[in-house]
Amino acid sequence: MHFSIPPDHPCLPGHFPGRPLVPGVVLLEQVLQAVAADSGQPIGALRLPQVKFMAPLLPGEEATVVLEGQSPRWKFRVLRQDQLLVRGELVVVGTGVPV
Description:
The protein is of the alpha+beta class.
């Protein structure tokens, strides 16, 4: 799944003034959307047993979520071209709560 966070996104003014970076929680939101699309179900309760942020994403840059695995456990990577930005693992422990 490809995505880009626009420069006018409401999370950016405070993260960080004068040199905005896309917050990690916004990147994880994109991962959740990719998992929901991959599984065909809304995601409920989940665990993130491991997440490592390797490099920042700037507003307007395009990134890609790559998933490996299937419900209820996925490994994920967020890439900007070939550069690894985030890697981790997501485990779904419930369903029925929209993302």
